[in-house]
Prior knowledge:
alpha/beta; Aspartate Aminotransferase, domain 1; 2 domains; seven-stranded mixed β-sheet; three-stranded antiparallel β-sheet; about 15% strand; binds pyridoxal-5'-phosphate
Amino acid sequence: KQHLADRVKTLTPSTTLAITAKAKELKDQGIDVIGLGAGEPDFNTPKNILDAAADSMMKGFTKYTPAGGLPALKQAIIAKLERDNNLTYAPNEVMVGVGAKHVLYTLFQVLLNPGDEVIIPIPYWVSYPEQVKLAGGVPVHLEATSEQQYKVTAEQLRGAITDKTRALILNSPSNPTGMVYTKEELAEIAAVCEEADILIVSDEIYEKLVYNGVKHFSIAQLSDSVKARTMVINGVAKSHSMTGWRIGYAAGNAEIIKAMTDLASHSTSNATTTAQYATIEAYNGPQDAVEEMRQAFESRLTEIYPKLNAIPGFHVLKPEGAFYLLPDVSEAAAKTGYESVDAFAKALLEEANVAVIPGSGFGAEKTVRLSYATSLEALEEAVSRMDKFVKSKW
Ligand code: PLP
């Protein structure tokens, strides 16, 4: 007898986790591996947030909450969306879940019928296609090349839409590319979505991490009609260094939000109560720590970007947001005798002791992803190791 349902048979395990496990194995053997795989800020959660969480527990707020989130948290999120994004929502248009990842999962579960298509630009965050497939949907990939700054164009989008298309996923600032869509680019994309009457899933989890004067703009800000077809996804994981607290949310169409809340009522019941109290403070309290962390990422990027780009055969677009660099290393791999970038990344780990994530997991086979959510010292050392490795084999 077989144990597993068909729906999990095509699940691709996360490449990020595979390389992290291998790096850990080497570390356990006493090898000094520098891990650049991390998808989370390397800072502690700000103290005022920790205090608010502890305080809520001591007051006895440790019971179930409404499935879609505490009313006070919804109000804090509504105030945040108004303040930062100039977007107005009512409480029945907001749903709080167990991290942005699970909110996206819930969204696709309530949105898709078997065979419904969701357009996902390449390079993509690894979980989008898997979540779409788990909901019975079909991921339709659109390749955004480095020549187009890894951003899809309205024209490409128009060409990919069929009568089965339900939604487009946009992630700006992007993991893994670090690119940020401009208001003008978003306007062109939104026009196509309106014409074709499809939803926009706008994953804005990296909104606070933008550099060198680049501004984040939410596609929902374009007009009331674009807002009506957009599900804004956000959370505190990356902005407030709260990855482990698992709080994310969706804002948008009330009918979709209600279905997501009803589904959550049968799956999670609610996001962890303490974490919800922490998030109220994250949004209602002082925001200085958010800006301090952003500045730390920006100064690391300024230091490390030119050095990474100077490694022979590494070609890197300068990121505008998030905390990843996505060098095209296909030339370096070929010139040093590797048949693929995956093999090159494996050698970087085993011989240069630097752990990077092969881009194949993001649909971008020529690249590797490096996270700069680590100390500048570690970054400098990692770049120097990779430089030596490439030069010694060139
Ligand atoms: N969306 C993107 C693009 C991400 O990179 C991540 C985290 O890596 C998430 C969503 C999930 O965030 P959360 O920790 O809130 O689930």
